[in-house]
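subagent[fold] <- orchestrator: predict structure for attached chain, return tokens only, no commentary.
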Amino acid sequence: MLYNLGSINIDHIYRVPHFPAPGETLLSVSYSKGLGGKGANQSIAIARAGGQVLHIGAIGDDALWTRDMLEEAGVEASGIAVLESATGHAIINVDTHGENCIVLFDGANVLVSESQISAALAAAKAGDWLLLQNEVNNGPFAAKLAREKGLKVAYVAAPFDAEKVKAMLPYVDLLSVNEGEAAMVCQALGVREYEIPVEKLLITRGSAGISYRDGARRYTQAVFAVKAIDTTGAGDTFMGYFMADIDGGKSPQEALRMAAAAAALKVTKKGTAEAIPLLKDVAKFIRSSPPKSS
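subagent[fold] -> orchestrator:
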């Protein structure tokens, strides 16, 4: 079982011919609104990968539909509080190459209380996973509580904040970063990559693939070659699929392969949460699309 303390956002998505320069007023090609936030995306990916996940987070009463969408995707939503605050939202620009540029408003995401977290984790058992990232508050409290209950803790250090990383790492079993974030972790701690003090280290390296360290064991996974339409949420899709498979008892290599395929399939579609692929589609994609050679 996975417990995900994560953000829930309303995504405002603008497709643009290019990212605006300072002082430039730019007419968008199209606009859409949907469910997003790193946490919500990860929870939906976990559910679509066949995992069990309870989401812990907060929204305002202006966006009850976001909770409905999570439930419809198979996410347990009893850990979501409805507060007297605006729901978090993201302004997402997507260019013609599928790259994105995002501005976040945290809103209710940073108003999750310690009592809410404690209640949500009350039924958690030793061996379950708690998944965390930096778009919500009270991460160190949740991680410490989870460790005390015998849970394993996975932490996505994004958006990167050196002080948050330092506060979290003593309670982390699995750290997930991209290559740039890994370099910032090393700089913040004054260590080299192989010295980052966690048992399990997952690093996504763009077109160079993915590396994973689990104790003394090392794994790599090549990326799948696709034409990207929208990269928003690709990392969240990867993490959700990876955690669902690890929690489900699959080998790290199989979990990496499934996660890489799910992320590749995600970027071939427009949108965020709604574009996260189903397990059956990922399996079909793997059969027809071998990854790049490393």
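orchestrator: received. Logging for downstream: The longest helix spans residues 252-266. Residues 2-7+36-82+115-288 form a domain with the UDP-N-acetylmuramoyl-L-alanine:D-glutamate ligase fold (CATH 3.40.1190.20).
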